[in-house]
């Protein structure tokens, strides 16, 4: 868990908060678009500014709307971010100048206990001079003039933040070892829109950390949240929960912003260890769910399927069996993917889901010694010898595990380029079944010794 001081970026929509966030974390983590209101949930990242390390929070544009509306729920997330921050960066657009909403935000910030640093963005050139002068009336002193897009003014921002977030006495954090079984489990929750992904994560955390509601497609950015799960058997275990945007069928995704959200969700899958495909039990399994699952497996991620809204599902037994059968048929490359039932509304099944996720990561990270592997291999080819296409024998010599996460094996032999796919599948399924890899994706590479007379 991060021990770094926290900085929250606050401001009305479209002043450049996400652009500054991306610059400070050094990656394009937050989605950026010319349209206002792109950011909805608050997004966190580790930032570095001229050697100063801190935790940065990108927030939704602050809007004065009814608390029950989507903008109102977004505002509640922004208020929560300011409450937990050591300092707030209040950003205005110096080219536009002050607008009534800026003054409303300033009144709210003056009533909070969090120190405020005023930032005038888009201050390159002379177009922002009048807006910078206007901002003095907000009562936060001289603004830090910068250009988040072009990286100008970062030294002045460093000077402004330094008094609030100096942290020489903090203990150094240990580097994360991905092979360590006690390292945080990187768990991505994926699925179609409105499957209940954000609601499930909120239930896990025990707080309204992510915006939820009846509207489809609320989540846009992929949001990573550090959390400690209280395992009934082993105590606290670190988890990095990743909430993702709902992924619709590609043909239905026309809007540029939705395309960016889906791309961000796919990117999140790449960096996860275990992917939970969340299904809406009231809608069952659809072709799009299989596409999402197949994508996770193609990327080599371990997969778990969870049926959400189980507390309101009808014909539960036949639904569960139908989903399992459809997965067996649709994901023929990996048999036996775990299928669980959960309820984000009541919390039922969440501990089981996390227990299975940790066990699945353990199988995904497993390494088998060469001796044990080849004893199994000899029995496997004795029970089912490889074919002899055209009367020429394929000789399989030995098998070795080259990598983990996902497990990858290299098969050495002669004429292995003629080894049928069905026989390769026989070996892969045997490895999964007999050596404890379960339903994780397994890679098999074929390699023949070099022929010295090739030339």
Structure description:
It is a single chain. This protein has 455 residues and is α/β, with parallel strands linked by helices. The chain folds into 3 domains: 6-165, Rossmann fold, CATH 3.40.50; 185-364, Rossmann fold (3-Layer(aba) Sandwich), CATH 3.40.50.300; 370-447, GMP Synthetase, Chain A, domain 3, CATH 3.30.300.20. The protein is 33% helix and 21% strand. The chain has 12 helices and 15 strands. A 6-stranded mixed sheet has the order 2-3-1-4-5-6. It is elongated. The protein starts with 5 loop residues before the first strand and ends in an 8-residue tail after the last strand. Mean pLDDT is 86; it is low at 168-174.
Number of domains: 3
What is the H/E string?
EHEEHEHEHEHEHEEHEHEHEHHEEHE
Number of contiguous helices: 12
Q: Summarize the amount of helix as a percent range.
A: 25-40%
CATH architecture label name of the largest domain: 3-Layer(aba) Sandwich
Helical/strand content category: alpha/beta
Shape by Cα distribution: elongated
CATH superfamily (homologous) name of the largest domain: P-loop containing nucleotide triphosphate hydrolases
Give the terminus-to-terminus CA distance: 58 Å
Specify Rg, calculated over alpha carbons.
Answer: 26 Å
Strand order of the largest sheet: 2-3-1-4-5-6
